[in-house]
């Protein structure tokens, strides 16, 4: 099994974690680590401890971060160099997390989950546009007597 850690700036991780729980229910292998300005002094120790605990409990771990180059990403990368079995993914979004969390099995490895995250995360980004008159095609108020 793979442990998952969600981290990022401000309320990113707690908000996205809340959305995951709303859609997919509680996830036992997901831990949220916030990085608030007021907590910056102890963030390095908190993220390192959380990653090490996750690897101990699950064997390997994927850390999902909001932004490449930010403190949460940088600290996760530093820990990943010291602790085997850690993969770090950046640019985390809700479709990515949902697919990853619901696809984990006992045989899943961290590199496999990281690869899935990249694939699904990109697929979850879209710019759908309704064509002109699309609303008229699906609901005609005059024909419906309104």
Describe this structure as you would to a colleague:
- Helix content is 50%, strand content 16%.
- It is globular.
- The chain has a four-stranded parallel sheet, with helices on both faces.
- The chain has 146 residues and is an alpha/beta fold.
- The longest helix is centred in the middle third of the chain and has 19 residues, at 40-58.
- It has helices at residues 12-24, 40-58, 71-82, 94-103, 110-123, 134-138, and strands spanning 2-9, 30-35, 60-64, 86-89.
Strand order of the largest sheet: 2-1-3-4
Query: Termini, distance in Å?
Result: 56 Å
Residues in helices, as a percent range: 40-55%
Report the C-alpha radius of gyration, rounded: 19 Å
The coarse silhouette is: globular
Q: How much β-strand is present in the residues?
A: 15-25%
| Alpha-beta content class | alpha/beta
Q: What is the average of the pLDDT values?
A: 92
Q: Outline the low-pLDDT stretches.
A: none
Instruction: Let me know the number of strands.
Output: 4
DSSP helical segment count? 6
User: Main beta sheet, described?
Assistant: 4 strands, parallel
> What series of H and E elements makes up the topology?
EHEHEHEHHH
Spell out the blueprint of helices and strands.
Blueprint lengths: L1 E8 L2 H13 L5 E6 L4 H19 L1 E5 L6 H12 L3 E4 L4 H10 L6 H14 L10 H5 L8
In brief, what are we looking at here?
With 146 residues, this protein is of the alpha/beta class. Helices cover 50% and strands 16% of the residues.
Keywords:
four-stranded parallel β-sheet, 6 helices, 146 residues, alpha/beta
């Amino acid at each position: 099994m793979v442990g998952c850690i969600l981290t990022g700036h401000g309320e990113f991780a707690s908000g996205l974690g809340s959305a995951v729980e709303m859609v997919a229910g509680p996830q036992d292998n997901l831990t949220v680590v916030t990085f608030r300005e007021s907590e910056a002094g102890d963030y390095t120790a908190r993220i390192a401890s959380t990653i090490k605990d996750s690897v101990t409990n699950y064997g390997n771990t994927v850390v999902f971060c909001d932004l490449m180059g930010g403190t949460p990403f940088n600290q996760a990368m530093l820990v990943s160099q010291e602790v085997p079995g850690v993969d770090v993914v950046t640019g985390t979004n809700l479709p990515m997390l949902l697919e990853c969390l619901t696809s984990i099995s006992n045989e899943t490895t961290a590199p496999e989950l990281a690869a899935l995250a990249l694939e699904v995360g990109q697929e979850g980004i879209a710019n759908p546009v309704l064509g002109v008159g699309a609303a008229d095609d699906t609901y005609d108020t005059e024909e419906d007597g309104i």
